[in-house]
TrEMBL record:
UniProt xrefs under CDD domains: SPFH_stomatin (cd03403)
Species this chain originates from: Capitella teleta (Polychaete worm)
Keywords (A to Z) from UniProt: Membrane, Transmembrane, Transmembrane helix
Transmembrane parts of this sequence: 41-66
Keyword Transport: no
Region Disordered, annotated ranges: 1-28
Domain (Band): residue spans on this chain: 61-220
GO terms under cellular component: plasma membrane
The keyword NAD belongs to this UniProt entry's keyword annotation: no
InterPro entries: Band-7_stomatin-like, Band_7, Band_7/SPFH_dom_sf, Stomatin_HflK_fam
UniProt similarity note: Belongs to the band 7/mec-2 family.
Protein name according to UniProt: Band 7 domain-containing protein
UniProt biased composition (Polar residues): 19-28
Amino acid sequence: MSDNRIEPTNDAAMDNSHKSTNQGYNMEDSSSNEGIGCCGYILTALSYIAIACMFPFSLCLCLKVVQEYERAVIFRLGRLLPGGAKGPGLFFVIPCTDSYTKVDLRTVSFDVPPQEILSKDSVTVAVDAVVYYRVSNATISVTNVEDANRSTRLLAQTTLRNVLGTKDLSQILSEREIISHFMQSSLDEATDPWGVKVERVEMKDVRLPVQLQRAMAAEAEAARDARAKVIAAEGEHKASRALKDAADVMNESPAALQLRYLQTLGTISAEKNSTIIFPLPIDLMRSFMNK
């Protein structure tokens, strides 16, 4: 019975440790950070005394300003101050004990260098992309990762190679929007513990080997020639059927045939020819042959 009671206690402790790890520096961490020790309190008190003695000149060192698009993450004696990031506007620091880091919250874009990727159908292509991201949590971006900008860039390169490595060349060329959306969701999920929000990912260019480009151009040209021959054959077929129908109509009416004969003579006479050959009607020749 005692073993059964101990196991759930350990599981609960492990769950709590995982939750605190995933959330980074939460309120529990900030409350524990308040205990800076006896030396910390002494140094803080001496700093306040020095600020009071040098007042108002000390305000130049104590008052700091951050812009509307910035936040300041303050550390006192190496410990994160409770209350989260400061700003925008004025905030107060103790010069001797406090240090702060400014974090830009604006959207940042960067180009992913061309990556040599072997597709699923064993075709080597070079693909580059552009990524748009911003810092969503200034405190986590400073405390949970050393360099959020550099880490996001490296992760974007590896994600691009991993995602495109599972696609065929035809999918890479035709499903660029789907691939970009999948990369954006993957990067956003991976960078969430860093306080980074990936807003958009776009594939810029897909460069194929020269030999493959020639082969694809030849294939496309052959397909166009085949379609042209089919269209020409269909046109000849329709023209021959129309000509057959016209011949049947003229065969039923000899007058129509004579009228077509006169129209043909008029067309020939309109051209500047030195010699014009008039064909004799077959009916006229038959009349002479009968006599």
